[in-house]
Amino acid sequence: MSEQREIPESTKPAMYVGIMILSLVGAILNFAFEFAWWYESSSDGYNFGIGAEYTPGFDKFLIVLLGLMFVYILLVALQQLYPILKLPKEVDKRIEQSGMFVSLGAVILTIIITILFYVYIGTEMWDDGLGTGFYAGIIAGLLCTLLFFLAGRIDKQAKPAK
């Protein structure tokens, strides 16, 4: 027999606080630090990020979009924790679901930016690596997705089965 353990209703605010903290850290790290870096054989090194000189414009746009996704996730968690806007329950539930999908989208966008980084630098580099923005995108995105999913499970288990 497989028996699922119920998640206590009292943990839901803690999940939203966790989402708020993770998304705030993810946004700050994506806006403030490099996404990746590389060295050529005779250079000091280059950064790949918003303020980096050698980052193509479209990649800068994607990194800014990734940071804005984390800002949106932060606002969704804030709305769920402290309802600023009085919305019908159905709309509020859709906003919460959109937060989970945007969190998952942040992970996918982080992977796309990483692929574009390696396409941009090519294979002739002496050394390269992924930076703070990459790890913030992957870790914060995955954990926010997980916390939104668990918060959704609390809502589902609270409804009586028909």
How are the SSEs placed, and which strands pair?
Elements: H1 12-32, E1 36-39, E2 46-48, H2 57-81, H3 89-121, E3 127-130, H4 132-158
Antiparallel strand pairs: 1-2, 1-3
Helix pairs in contact: 1-2, 1-4, 2-3, 2-4, 3-4
Structure summary:
The chain is mainly α. Helices cover 65% and strands 7% of the residues. The protein has a 3-stranded antiparallel beta sheet.
Please give the alpha-carbon distance between the first and last residues: 22 Å
The SSE string, one letter per element, is: HEEHHEH
Strand content: 5-15%
Arrangement of strands in the largest sheet: 2-1-3
Query: Whole-number radius of gyration?
Result: 19 Å
Please mark out the parts with pLDDT under 50 across 5 or more consecutive residues, or reply none. none
What percentage of residues falls in helices of 4 or more residues? 55-70%
Structural class determined from secondary elements:
mainly alpha
Helix count?
4
Count of DSSP strands: 3
Shape: elongated
The biggest sheet amounts to: 3 strands, antiparallel
Total discrete domains: 1
- Give the mean pLDDT: 84
Protein described:
The chain is mostly helical and 162 residues long. The chain has one domain. Helices cover 65% and strands 7% of the residues. It has 4 helices and 3 strands. Strands 2-1-3 form a 3-stranded antiparallel sheet. A hairpin with a 6-residue loop joins strand 1 and strand 2. The longest helix has 33 residues. The protein is elongated. The protein starts with 11 loop residues before the first helix and ends with a helix.
